[in-house]
Write a structure and sequence with these properties.
With 406 residues, the chain is α/β, with parallel strands linked by helices. It contains 14 helices and 15 strands. It has a six-stranded mixed β-sheet, sandwiched between helices. Strands 8-7-9-10 form a four-stranded parallel β-sheet, with helices on both faces. Strand 12 and strand 13 form a beta hairpin. Helix 2 packs parallel to helix 12 and helix 5 runs parallel beside helix 6. The longest helix is centred in the last third of the chain and has 20 residues. The N terminus is likely disordered.
Length: 406
């Protein structure tokens, strides 16, 4: 009897010592493993993410073998239209009606923040690929959200820092007037001021603006050395094109795009884009591994991948590998496995997912080539240097994520 009581006591203590997520072996859900891709399929961000991002997710599923835990993998996709209500409605529909287990995001930051809240309430995994707001791993962090490709802090701490340290000590911003642009301006301003520089002011524009002339004139009148573009996609293209018409970017005032992609450079043409310096999370021509993967992607899309599209492939593979390793698609177990597993693939080197959901990996300081330097349609960039992930991304010691134990 004493032995029986002792065994009973030991077993009770052992159960209590197991973390809640693993107190019971989580069973895999029945039916297909479903992934939802929500992205801007037709608007200002469609070229850099959009249909190409959905294609990258499907490519990852195919490369994985189309099944995980002997269950088929299904990919659903939808157009976010860069609208919070459209994104939120589709996410709830996928979760409640279609039993989607993970949403991979290619939206604006305001929609991404809505997805973060919904994922938390439903206990569903969200992989943030395109949205940049650092709030996703700071004030709005979630145990089910992973910010995978870049964030506004890392962009500011790479592009902004490099330009400020090379003499660009006065800035004026042309900023997209929503969560992403505001966060990117704020994070870059903080870096510039920390380095002893100053910010002269900013102009805010709506998403999808066609006329940037008044914003460019204000920037020109500021006499700031650097005109920081805290926007993306076609907004960035329009801002650079119209700034060039006013003579900016070739004289004492330089243009600093804080988030720009190969598709933007293609849209602008190297004659206009040449010399632009910025941080990139990925470049297809970086090394043999990235080239081999990008050429396979090109066969599907007839375009080389952006960091968003390559990141979507990598994140999907990492998610599926975590399900296989954990032996379940139960969200807590899968997220724990994703955070425990380093990422080294065609997209990222030295990748690791921190407790606050930030995926830290190397970034690259790149420069747009001149037309004479380019040897082909997609030969657009030269890599000046690698920025180690731990230097680019916010350290946990400086994070305000409520999940962290202070």
């Amino acid at each position: 009897m004493k032995f029986a009581r002792a065994v009973h006591t030991w077993m009770a203590m052992a159960v209590l010592s197991i973390p809640p997520a693993y107190a019971q072996a989580p069973a895999a859900s029945a039916g297909a493993v479903k992934i939802g891709v929500i992205a801007d399929m037709s608007g200002v961000y469609s070229a850099l993410g959009g249909p190409g991002m959905a294609a990258a997710v499907r490519m990852a599923v195919s490369d994985f073998g189309g099944k995980v835990l002997n269950r088929p993998i299904e990919v659903l996709s939808a157009d976010s239209q860069n609208k919070v209500d459209v994104t939120a409605s589709r996410a709830r529909e996928w979760y409640d009606r279609d039993n989607v287990g993970m949403i991979i995001e290619g939206t604006d930051s305001a929609s991404a923040l809505a997805l973060q809240k919904i994922g938390l309430s439903k206990k569903k995994i969200t992989l943030f690929i395109q949205a940049a707001s650092s709030a996703l791993t700071e004030s709005e962090c979630s145990p089910y959200g992973i910010h995978y490709v870049y964030d506004t802090y890392a962009l500011a701490n790479s592009t902004g820092r490099a330009i400020a340290e090379s003499g660009g000590d006065s800035w004026y911003f042309i900023t997209a007037d929503y969560a992403f642009g505001q966060a990117l301006e704020s994070d870059t301003s903080a870096i510039v001021k920390r380095l002893g520089g100053k910010v002269s002011g900013s102009s805010r524009h709506p998403i999808g603006a066609a006329d940037f002339s008044s914003f460019v004139v204000s920037a020109q009148s500021s006499n700031a050395k650097v005109i920081g573009l805290a926007n993306a996609g076609k907004d960035t293209q329009n801002a650079i094109r119209q700034a060039a018409e006013f003579g900016l970017g070739r004289g004492k005032q330089i243009i600093a795009p804080l988030l720009i992609f190969e598709t933007d450079l293609k849209g602008l043409g190297l004659q206009t884009a040449q010399g632009l310096q910025f941080a990139a999370a990925f470049y297809w021509d970086l090394n043999a591994e990235s080239r081999a993967w990008a050429k396979r992607y090109y066969q599907l899309q007839k375009a080389m991948p952006t960091s968003v599209q390559a990141g979507a492939y990598s994140a999907t593979m990492h998610y599926l590998k975590a399900i296989a390793a954990a032996g379940t698609d139960q969200p807590d177990a899968v997220v724990a496995m994703m955070k425990a597993t380093p990422i080294n693939d065609a997209f990222a080197k030295n990748g690791k997912i921190l407790e606050n959901g930030s995926m830290v990996h190397d970034l690259y300081l790149v420069q747009a080539k001149t037309p004479a330097e380019s040897k082909g349609e997609w030969d657009l960039l030269k890599v000046n240097r690698t920025i180690p992930g731990d230097s680019a991304f916010r350290p946990l010691s400086a994070s305000a994520c409520p999940l962290l134990k202070k």
